[in-house]
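hi!! sorry for the late reply, been swamped w classes. u asked for the two structures so here they r. pasted raw, havent cleaned anything up. first the sequence of the first protein and right below it the tokens
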Amino acid sequence: MARHDALLAEKRRILQLETLYDLAIALHAQRPEQELVDELLQRVCAVLDPAAAVAVTRDAYGGARGVATVGWVDDVPTGDALLAAPIWRELLTEGHILARSQGVLAGRAYDQLVVAPLAYRGVFLGYVAVLDKEVRGDSDPSFTADDRRFLDSVTALAGAALDAARQVERLETQRERLEEENKALKGRFAEEVGGRRIVAHAPGMRRVLDVVERVAPRGVNVLVRGESGTGKELVAKLLHHLSGREGALIAVNCAALPESLLESELFGIEGGVATGVQARPGKFELANGGTLFLDEIGDMETSLQVRLLRVLQEREVTRVGGRRPIPVDVRLVAATHQDLESRIREGRFREDLYYRLKGVEVDLPPLRERKQDIPHFVRAFLEEFCRREGIPVPALRSEALALLLNHDFPGNVRELQNLIEGAVSLADGDIDADLVRSLMGTSSQPSSPEPLDLESLEKRHISRVLKLTGGNKTEAARILGLDRKTLQRKGF
């Protein structure tokens, strides 16, 4: 009999060692935290054979992250309930594995309980608890000292693995943030904020830059208004550059995404919300400590406006499918070409959000009201495009410049840039008036008056660009600086 018991004890020790080895390999794989918690509890139960068991982890704010249970038929406890249990507070106080008799854990009574903290380098990440060992034949119906040592070893191993997984997660978030910032830096960001692309000789633009320089270091939200192509995103970049904020500048076009995608893009999404969905942070999290630029805010659906308002008020965001709020420190810059006051009267934009966004309002003048900037823009665009293409800078004849100065540019600075780049591409020597006139779609002969309202001018300009691209809408949208869906909404 003694020999039989010794053999059983030896088999249990071998099983425990094998489990520790297998678990070490499984836990150190790059997997979501919930999968690690599930794997951990399955391995523990396979060796210790409890009637019930739980494993729970918490995040940096004290909320539950991962939770797994075995043995609860009804009223399966939540992670928050397990972290509110008195045994968790005892673990935090004692700092080591505990054994208790005759008690209740998350609504389930037990005769015997062994609980061990999931911790690494003094940081408590959660715990694992086993309740009431199952009776198997003549086996001891209680947890032995070997069982406690095994659970202690498993949780120590799991604590290190969970800490490593979280470090990988933090690095991944940082990588995504840097990628977003790199996108903002592309497109000659250094040139833009360095003054070579910010042309402001006209009094109206000088006033704009004065406001930007004064409000940039403050945390106040800024609403940038102006027609399409006036440089609203450039102002947002300048605000961020002068703010001194260490986080990234993250840009989102609210008109380019459907409501469901925009929601997860802004606020993030938890894993498991739908089949195959991985947890990922939203733009608010990626912009933490930095600036979030919401372009075309006037096109945001009212249901999302409610969520955005709450984030701005509470300074915390909750992911889609999530429950824990995540604190964020974000400076918001919003932009629109829409008449927000009219949309408020129509019930399509929330008045409370409007006032929350316009801590400071910046109105960008259209190019037709700052024509003295046109020669400076022309020179900058000529030099920039030719440097990028590696070709000599052609001369712009005076009569061609006169045409540009007399044009109203419904597409504003963006239209002027596209026209200059087209002229350089087509020029055979100097850029003359005939080439500029052909790109504008105008004739040297007088013609019947055309409508001068902004909508008609915009449609004529889009039609010219489509003609230039041979009807290629994707290429036309790129040249115009629009999303292809926006082009379709405009009837093209």
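now the second protein. again sequence first, tokens right under
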Amino acid sequence: MMLGGAVVAALAVLAFVLLDPILAAFVVILLVTAAVIAVLARDWDRHSTYEERELARAQKRAQKWERGKDARARDRAKWEAHQARQAGRTDR
């Protein structure tokens, strides 16, 4: 990467020495743009796949579900007690 930067800088200086300043600026803009694109694209294929991301999400959801197990059990007990009270009222 450092070598590429040095090459771009050398070509930029050379362009301003040999060419009209407007043309040299155009060449430098193209060189810098190409260098930035090359730096940004150097690891474009190192990302995780869709399946890997979904597996990680599923594992997080499973852990979260497991952590809430006790709260769901308490809520279920409260709901069943409430349903029993409601059933007792309608029997009167």
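hope this helps!! also noticed smth abt the second:
The first helix runs from residue 2 to 18.
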